[in-house]
Task: structure prediction
Amino acid sequence: MSPVSHGTGERRDGDHWLLHIAPHVAHAYETVWPALTTPEGLQGWLAEADTLERHLGGAVTLQWANSGTRVSGHVTAWDVERVVEYTVPVHGRMRFHLEPLGTDSTLIRFTNELHGNESYALDCLAGWHEHFLLLEDYLEGRPAYWPAWTKTRWTTLRTEYATHLQPH
Result:
């Protein structure tokens, strides 16, 4: 079974959305934290961190190898080994809240607050779902090899989200 269950989307006002995904990974939070908060970790499953000042208010610049999107923003929450939040244009506020489950498992309560139409929200849900699958691979010692990345899995996930889990 996949460690990533389907996420949900909630429209707040007009084009304001809250997306939620809560992957359960079979790794201790001490292992998960660096994957979310270091340039090496982020590059293995999400994006290259050209700049990452690891403290509240620090600068962050992320470049997604699968899309070429490059954005700069700030670290808007930082509670060591518990919460990290990056806020950047295009992708909005991305909050990762770690909850240890025993000694060798972690629940990541992820929230993405963004602006866009319903189609964009569905695109992002599928994208985050795929990235969390890549995170599980990374934590198992298989970092993403971006030159080989294709839209195949994302397209399948996008169709599933559009068909079964329309944001409301």
